[in-house]
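How a chain folds remains the central question behind the approach discussed here. In the encoding step, the backbone of a single protein was reduced to a row of integers, each denoting a local shape. We regard such an encoding as a compact summary of how the chain folds. The sequence in question and its structure tokens are set out directly beneath this paragraph:

___
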Amino acid sequence: MCKMTFEELSGEYSTERMDTVTKALEEVLSSALPQGCITVGVYEAAKSLNVDPDNVVLCILATDDEDVKDVALQIHFTLIQAFCCENDINILRVNNTRRLAEILGGGGKQGGEPLHGPVGAHH
């Protein structure tokens, strides 16, 4: 399992690598979305993880500055991260929820609510 946060990268090389990761993530999400292989939201992702964890290949934990103050959401994130680690599911944390929502077709909102929480990509 690979767990990487962008804070772990540094220097000029890190900018190139982050751009590459960003482009790859955009491509994966854009191609998985029309196939119905994306689950968005804390509760929806938890259900998907519980029902068939072997079918989940990536968990994206999306937060913004306001989410850091939400203790309940942070507890959910911690539990989801632990579950993903136990089941060898890759985890990626992102802090640009607006861009992620744009990729997922929500234009900054998902179902009328701001996008936050996990995004699961599955087969």
